[in-house]
Amino acid sequence: MSPPLPPRPPSLSDGLSLELIPPHSPKSPFYLLALDTGSDLIWIQCEECKIQDENHRCYPQKEEPFPDSKSRTYQPLPSSHPLCKPSRSDEKGHCIYTVKYKTGSINSTGVLSSETFRFPSTSSPSGTEAVKGIVFGCGYKNYDDDGNAGDAYQIAGIFGMSPGPLSFLSQYKAKKFSYCMVPRHVKNPPPTYLRFASEVKPLTRFQMVDLLMTKATKNHFVLQLEDLGVNGKRLRIDRRRLGNQ
């Protein structure tokens, strides 16, 4: 059996808006990917993690892991795929990924795959918008180095949004995106959205800051810090001492 071909590029539209759900919201157990602008890989827990041996582990989540074997559009990718870096394969020739976070949060190992991602949509007759051929990690060994357990995790995985090649931002090929965070103490927060491309609205009350990228920080966004202020007064710190933050 020959290895599957690389997937087609994601289908693109003029723009996309996704509602952001705060972790303390009553909706949060039902929207299960955590947005992360500091990493690029999108990954979720897949059904193989339920085997529960030394190579298959699930961390607790509210819903069942993604049933990849039942999906008609799911496709594992070969180790020869250009996004399989470093190139590692299992006995079937599928690309194996491993992601570990410096914060000591959840880590994951699994098969790099492609799938159609569907998002709620108010402009589509079907009520959803499909983005085809998204490359993501189908995790079958997911764990926490710190040994946390119980109901600590209500997420099914990570929605990578860094500038790296595997992030949703890069795969969707949007040249701009925006989002706004609501303070945690707000009891009934208004809806906030992650917007891409033409869905990014012009800003009138906010100041825009350019995001910088260098070779040393190619998978992270960087801001040039000009100065610090206390009680409305600038400290006038030499910018060379501040560097990129």
Could you explain the architecture of this structure?
With 245 residues, the chain is mostly beta strands. The protein contains two helices and twelve strands. It has helices at residues 168-172, 239-242, and strands spanning 15-20, 33-36, 43-45, 75-76, 96-99, 106-120, 128-144, 157-160, 177-178, 192-197, 229-230, 233-234. β5 and β6 (106-120) form a beta hairpin. It is globular, with a radius of gyration of 20 Å.
Question: Keywords, please?
Answer:
single chain, 245 residues, 7-stranded mixed beta sheet, 3-stranded antiparallel beta sheet, 2 helices, globular
In short:
By secondary structure, this protein is mostly beta strands. It has helices at 168-172, 239-242; strands at 15-20, 33-36, 43-45, 75-76, 96-99, 106-120, 128-144, 157-160, 177-178, 192-197, 229-230, 233-234. Helices cover 4% and strands 27% of the residues.
List the topology elements.
Blueprint: E1 15-20, E2 33-36, E3 43-45, E4 75-76, E5 96-99, E6 106-120, E7 128-144, E8 157-160, H1 168-172, E9 177-178, E10 192-197, E11 229-230, E12 233-234, H2 239-242
Parallel strand pairs: 2-8, 3-7
Antiparallel strand pairs: 1-10, 3-8, 4-6, 5-6, 6-7, 9-10, 11-12
